[in-house]
Amino acid sequence: MQIFFRVDASNQIGSGHVQRCLTLAEQLKQKGAEIHFIINKQKGNMEAEIRRQYSVYFIECMISQGQELDAEQTVSVLREINRKVDLLIVDHHQLSVQWQNKVKPLVEKLMVIDDLANRKHNCDLLLDQNYYKDYRSRYKDLVPASCRQLLGPKYLLLRPEFNNVNRNLRKNESIERLLICYGGADPTNETEKVLTALKKYSMVDKFIIDVVVGSNYINVARIKQLCSEINANLHYNINYMATLIAKADLAFGAGGVSMWERCYLGLPSVVTIVADNQSRAVNDATDKPFVINLGWHHNVNVQDYYELINRLTVNLDDLKKIREKLVHFINQIDQHKCVVAEEIIALIS
Predict the structure, then answer these.
(1) Is 192 one of the annotated binding-site residues?
(2) Active site includes 17?
(3) Number of domains in the chain
(4) Is the pLDDT of residue 15 over 90?
(5) Is 159 annotated as a binding residue?
(6) Exactly one of 17, 36, 121, 297 is catalytic; which is it?
(7) Domain assignment of residue 74, given as a range
């Protein structure tokens, strides 16, 4: 089985799309697939991480030049490779039915990974792993009638490390251990805001604090300094995120895939929206409530984080309510079953 991914990462958009594609790629590889990635050459594209296991092909254009040019260059790559493509998986919010119509004749099947439900797709399989109030009907008029839709948290793509972590480790009613992580790049600098707020907090010494930054993070020197000032543990580009989530009592992070990973391990988190594609999912998750939502990053400052830390450490009711709701969320997901990979194998077999 020859399976190709078309996906991008960068210092601007972060690494979340590539990370979840790598998760799916590993599951498919274990089922006998040969995996290839098609990416562009922008800074922070995670080429090195992908190349550790898979072949990488490049397109020269930037997505800002339009999806038609992107499609033409993707077609050129596929023709140059000159082999049967059993499945092309596209994870890109700027690519829609126009792109898919140009590329689809060169592949046996086409799959889309989406979060937005804001454009039409021409695909055989669609995955949207997010929880939304209306998640079962979001793509009703956006995909062909024959398209198989995998919708909701049941289809959450979890990295292998999450399968080996006890989901019931958290026993504390109080807040003793904090986790701070805003993805691979943190372009809005939320990590620094939270650490600065904690520096102001008079009882910061009572916390064990874990701070995680990724390979695309550009402000590492400043974060190292702040971590040393409050005796926080700094973790760089790690492969044991699940362990840190399982140990924590409260997290600070963004929306996206990482938000659902925290929910999966039952960890209450304070979420700041840092990208358009996170807004709807974060707001709907807040209504359950699965998370505490501070809103858009540009409206959140150090003082907001400081006041929230003060409030949560005095009154634990919000966290207790979230923990109770997350128990029901966790029970929807089979910890050891690669549901999406099995659906893909069924499609292309």
Answers:
(1) no
(2) yes
(3) 2
(4) no
(5) yes
(6) 17
(7) 2-158+334-348
